[in-house]
Amino acid sequence: MRWVVARALTIALTSLILVFVSVFALSITEQASLERILFEVVSAFGTVGLSMGMTVHLTVCGKLVIMCVMFLGEIGPLTIAFSF
């Protein structure tokens, strides 16, 4: 039972770290509010398909960050955790 809880915490922590690092990277490269950046990153990670219209105006670096977040969100945090 303790192993299941530890695995769940690892997956959740890995996902949170990925979201926070992505938000930090976008806040450096983009001129937008933290609320809009956080919405874009969480939407990309969850592969929801929602946007506040900010994706079109991202720099190349910002688009690469969003693409990586979308890819990692698509393969899933569980797969990421098992790869380590």
From TrEMBL:
The keyword Cell membrane applies. It is a multi-pass membrane protein. InterPro entries: Cat_transpt (IPR003445). Keywords: Cell membrane, Ion transport, Membrane, Transmembrane, Transmembrane helix, Transport. Its main location: membrane. The chain crosses the membrane at residues 6-26, 38-58, 64-82. It is found in: Cell membrane. This is Potassium transporter TrkG. It comes from Sporolactobacillus shoreicorticis. The lineage of its organism: Bacteria, Bacillati, Bacillota, Bacilli, Bacillales.
